[in-house]
Amino acid sequence: xxxxxxxxxxxxTELVGGKDNIVSLTHCVTRLRFVLKDTxxxxxxxxxxxxxxxxxxxxxxxxxxxxGNKVDGIYxxxxxxxxxxxxxxxxxxxxxxxxxxxxxxxxxxxxxxVPTLGVLTAAGIIKGVTSFLALDNIGVLNPTGxxxxxxxxxxxxxxxxxPIMLGFTAARKFKSSEFIGAAIGAALVYPSMVNIAxxxxxxxxxxxxxxxxxxxxxxxxxxxxxxxxxxxxxxxFPVIVSVYLASKLEKWCKNHISDNLKGILTPVIxxxxxxxxxxxxxxxxxxxxxxxxxxxxxxxxxxxxVGGLIIGGLQQVIVIFGVHHVFSALEIxx
Length: 334
Description:
Blueprint (H helix, E strand, L loop, with lengths): L5 H10 L6 E6 L3 E6 L7 H5 L6 E5 L2 E5 L4 H12 L18 H33 L12 H15 L1 H12 L4 H11 L2 H4 L1 H4 L4 E3 L7 E7 L2 E4 L10 H20 L2 H43 L4 H15 L7 H6 L1
Antiparallel strand pairs: 1-2, 2-4, 3-4, 5-6, 6-7
Helix pairs in contact: 1-3, 4-5, 4-6, 6-7, 6-10, 7-10, 7-11, 10-11, 11-12
């Protein structure tokens, strides 16, 4: 069946030197990745002027043709109409380019977040429109009505269970079991744990009297089980770090457990160790980091104008990284 991208697929194939010059073709989220026999045969100037092409660049041993969100359609058209055996989708960082620590971190975070952005945006729009239409002076939606209830479930549900979604995409990024990643996210938003403050008395407080004070409600092996006030719903980093740990554990288990048992024991060991580590170590440490960020923000706000400019300018980044909850109490106080 003809595609609207067939013509541009033929044009791109021609400009990279033809089918015979292509060793392999893969794609990531935004770009076609060609490995060519002879890169000098590629007309990069003409390629950059081709319809849908945003940019052309050589990275390592690849000629990368950036086409944005049209990449799936153009890739499929090239494979189907030009007789090229494609290698499918690859991670954005699979190239010959060496990256620094910061770039690698940003690439990892974007690789985990990008697959969720479309639905995340949709949920945000639904949530915002629903709240707007339910305002007293608008009066289009009844806040106690069934439609409002259903739309609120759609708008809030994705954000509430975001750790499950990110657990899945993080596991895919770290090349481990997606369902182990999702299970870790589910453990972090398990209702009995989220509501622990209302069901159990406070057993003690770590760092009492300081900004780092954290209440705990139980212990495991003598180590306090800390639950932040906002819980881990809508959070980003705790699940990502926990799934990274799980990916390492999973690989270790597969290499050290016999074939007869690893199918069962690998997920059992990985889940138990990762979730325990998430609640006992990873979550509290990241909570302490969040407090450090809050202290820094408070210091910035003591500098007239500067604090507002910095926080306002970084607000979108703050929300994307899921650390915006740090500022809730601060915003109320200020």
